[in-house]
Specification:
The chain is an alpha/beta fold. Helix content is 54%, strand content 10%. It comes from Anabaena catenula FACHB-362.
């Protein structure tokens, strides 16, 4: 069941033994960096759990149902946006062309839906399973509501996926068995990218550097890279040549890139500038840019201040 998951031997061993010994915890927390296989591991674990309730020849059908999210004993929760009275996942928002400044969150209503789902006995499986992706996005009210469910999960197992235990309320963490996930080495990343049909990313070392051992992050970064005009990318990866050039770059970024692309560009520029000139002050300036954008400051003004500062820093670096 775990064959698609690469480089996470400890997690695979812990989860496999739990099923073999029939010692399934009421709640797990899969912790690790984004894109290293936490969600895939959750799916593989659920397939292993549910396979005991079907005949061997029915397993391929079971796997398809789990992947499509239509198994009656599985409830998969993702952070959502609130838009015109509807809740939209990030994928649904992108499909509808909805651009939001604030990131999606797991809402109190979604926790109530979990409670309702768990109020009935499992169908077609020995237990109900609930998966919460990006559990760190839960508001405090939602986390407190989930705590009541974790205290008495009944015939169910909950899987919380988060970057670290510190990103989730301690009261939730204390009720979960932690399963660690780690970043992969370069060969592991290459293996995942090849296996998923993303070999072309291997030709972009800057994307691989940004991903820092996370195949999922490499794929997301490459997809984001494709949305940014190549001419603009070439211009911004060079330090500004004048005050006027700094202002022009800011204007172009504001005009051509949405907020998500601008935030990704900060990571890309930090990587690019560090390779060109090892000046920590420029990296710190870009970190301020990120914070200002996340605080909904006017993007053009933020980038103007950024590039003007970078221009001055680069001048002092070349002309001490």
């Amino acid at each position: 069941m775990f064959s698609p998951l690469i480089g996470q031997k400890q997690a695979i061993e812990l989860l496999t033994q739990a099923v073999k010994q029939n010692r399934i915890a009421p709640a797990y927390m899969f912790v690790g960096s984004e894109g290293v296989g936490r969600s895939l591991a959750a799916r593989c674990f659920i397939e292993l759990l549910f396979s005991s309730s079907v005949e061997p020849h029915q397993i391929p059908t079971l796997q398809n149902r789990i992947r499509q999210g239509n198994h009656p004993s599985l409830f998969w929760v993702e952070p959502t946006y609130q838009y015109q009275g509807q809740r939209l996942t990030a994928a649904e928002a992108a499909e509808k062309g909805v651009k939001r400044k604030a990131p999606p969150v797991i809402r109190l209503e979604q926790i109530r839906e979990i409670t309702q789902f768990l109020s009935r006995p499992p169908l077609e499986a020995s237990r109900n399973v609930v998966v919460l992706e990006q559990a760190e996005t839960m508001a405090e009210s939602a986390a407190n509501a989930l705590l009541k469910t974790l205290e008495e999960p009944g015939q169910a197992t909950l899987i919380l996926i988060a970057p670290s235990p510190e990103s989730v309320l301690p009261t939730l963490v204390s009720r979960c068995q932690k399963i660690p996930f780690y970043r992969l080495d370069r060969s592991g990343v290459a293996q995942v990218l090849t296996q998923t049909g993303n070999e072309e990313i291997l030709q972009h070392p800057e994307v691989l550097s940004l991903a820092a051992g996370s195949p999922g992050s490499a794929i997301a970064s490459y997809q984001q890279l494709q949305t940014i005009p190549s001419e603009l990318l070439q211009q911004v990866t060079k330090t500004p040549t004048s005050y006027r050039n700094a202002l022009e770059l800011a204007k172009k970024i504001d005009k051509e890139l949405d907020t998500e692309a601008q935030l990704w560009l900060i990571d890309y520029l930090q990587q690019s500038y560090w390779q060109q000139i090892h000046q920590p002050s420029i990296i710190e300036q870009l970190e301020k840019t990120r914070k200002n954008l996340l605080c909904y400051a006017q993007p053009r003004l933020v980038w103007e201040c950024t590039f003007l500062s970078i221009f001055q820093m680069s001048r002092s670096y070349t002309n001490p």
